[in-house]
Structures are given as C-alpha cells and as structure tokens.
Amino acid sequence: MKPNLIVILGPTASGKTNLAAQLAYRFDTEIISADSRQVYKELTIGAGKDYEDYIVNQKKIQTHLIDIVSISEQYHIHQFKKDFENVFEKFETKIPILCGGSGLYIDALLRDLDFTQIPVNQTLRDELLPKSHKELITILNDLPKTKYSDLTDISTHKRLIRAIEICSFLQHNSIQKIIKKQIYPFVIGINPDVEVRRKNIEKRLNLRIKNGLIEEVESLLKIGFSPERLIYLGLEYKFVTEHLLGKTSLTQMTDLLTIAIQQFAKRQMTYFRKMEKDGLQINWINEVNQQNMLLLKSKIERATV
Fold it and tell me: Could you read off the pLDDT of 26-61 as tens digits, one per residue?
C-alpha cells in the first residue's frame, strides 16, 4: 500500500523537528506531534517546544497535538491514540508527518496496540508508586502471563507501573477491537553518532538554562503546581524542581540532568531498534543536511507515486 503517514523518529536532540518542518514545507503538509510532554500547555522550554522551527521560508507549518491539555490533567497513551486518530482521519489528500521521540506512542499507533485502551487504575497506582523498581519487577513477574507480558516496557518506574496495571486488568477483562483508518507508514529515523548526540544534548541543555528553564519551573511552582507533579514529568522538570527545593546545586543539577538525558537518548534508541526487530522498516540517516533531505524527498516521492 502507498504510505499515508510519514513518521520521523529518533533520540532527543537529533533534529527531528527541523527535518519534519522542512519536509512538511516541501510536501505542503502538516505535522502531528508524538511527544508525551509537548501536549501540556504550561510546559515550553523544558519540553522543547521550539516554535520557531515550524517556520520555513516565512511559512508557518500547521501542527497538531501540541498545547492541548493542562498538566493538572493526566494524559495517557490511550488518549494520545484517540487524539491522533481524530486528527489523522481528517487527512484525505495530504500525507501528514508524525514526529517525535516517544517510541511507545509511535509504536502504539503503528502496531495498533489495543492495550493502550486499558483504563487507569488510580488506586493500584497509588499503592505501587512508593515501591522500588526491584519490588515492582517482582510484582510484575508474580502476575499470571497475559498477551501483554512479552510486550512490557520496564525501563522506567512509570512504565513498569503501567505494565502491572495492564497485566492486572487482563486477568479479569478482555479488550474490544476498534475499527479505524489503517496506517501505512514511511518511517525515517535520525541516529547521530554517539559523540555528536552527546555534544548536542549538552549544548541544548545549556541553551535552555540560559533561556529560562529554571525560571519556567519556578513559575510553575509559584502558580500552584506541586513539586511531586513536576518531578513526575521527568528529566528537566524533575531535576530543576529538585534543585529549586535545595536538593542540588546548579552545577550538580546540570551534571546530573545531562547524564539523565544521555541515558534517556540511549533508551530511546534501544526502543527504536526493538521496533525494527519487530518488523518496522526504518530509513536511517545520521544527520539532517541538504543531501539527506534530497535523498529522503526522492524516496518519499517514489513511495507515494
């Protein structure tokens, strides 16, 4: 089948937004974000909302699923799937571009994982939240096997809790298959050399701090968002909040956050490689430049003729 969705994925600070905007301009189309934090209205600098990247040759590229909910709400992968499907259904002649680094979000769309529709069990979450990573793994392993058991992502505390939630639900419930518009993706992956990726992450973090990252988090605390909520959002919001609470100095915070983002980028690439092993064809490039842009444009044109 001809592709009806262009997908751009890759680790953080690899240039995904820039590539998506350039291709959207060339193909006169729009971008759908697949970023788990850019959905929140109050998050800007730490979430990497580089609005200026969406302007190409003085043309503003239309974007979707950015700034759609407040951080006072919990936004889950099932809601993302529903929101994506509502947007995707509207495209008839244009081929939209899905862009983001949230591998779980992208995987859920491309493989149509029905498990995302399983509801949140807040009572169970409250019970599991204080437990250690090791304790959560033991709880998960003690649960009877389900169809989801081999798909579990235990890379973070949050995802491990969600895995227990899903497996617990499936002990006594079934999930309904929903008929929707089929996705036929053309997938592009950006994978810079490790040293380049590290330098990009360091440079970008320093720029974000200079541009007001700490002040952004401070203002969120001042208007009433709890430290626990911001820490739950992870990375920049977690480490800056802890710094503002006096747990780390500015230098310590910067060093620890840099390491955490590097580790996060590594986990992202591990997830994308897993998606490849599961059968997803990814057209990899190592950087966004004019030569690669022309090559991708040619490949997309051939695939969609």
Answer: 999 999 999 999 999 999 999 999 899 999 999 999
The answer to whether the beta carbons of residues 22 and 56 sit under 8 Å apart is yes
- CA dihedral over 224, 44, 126, 228, signed as positive or negative: negative
DSSP string, 20-53: HHHHHHHTT--EEE--TTTTBTT--TTTT--GGG
Q: What is the pLDDT of residue 117?
A: 73
**Beta strands of the chain (E only): which ranges?**
5-9, 31-33, 55-56, 59-60, 63-64, 97-99, 185-190, 282-285
Specify burial of residue 49 (Cβ count, 10 A radius: 0-12, 13-18, 19+).
Answer: buried
Q: Tokens 């919001």 map to which residue?
A: 237
Structure tokens at 79: 């809601």
Question: What pLDDT digit, counting tens, does each position of 170-181 carry?
Answer: 888 877 666 578
Strands 282-285 and 5-9: unpaired
How far is CA 297 from each of CA 84, 114, 300, rounded to the nearest angstrom? Answer: 24, 33, 5
Rounded Cα distance, 24 and 137, in Å? 42
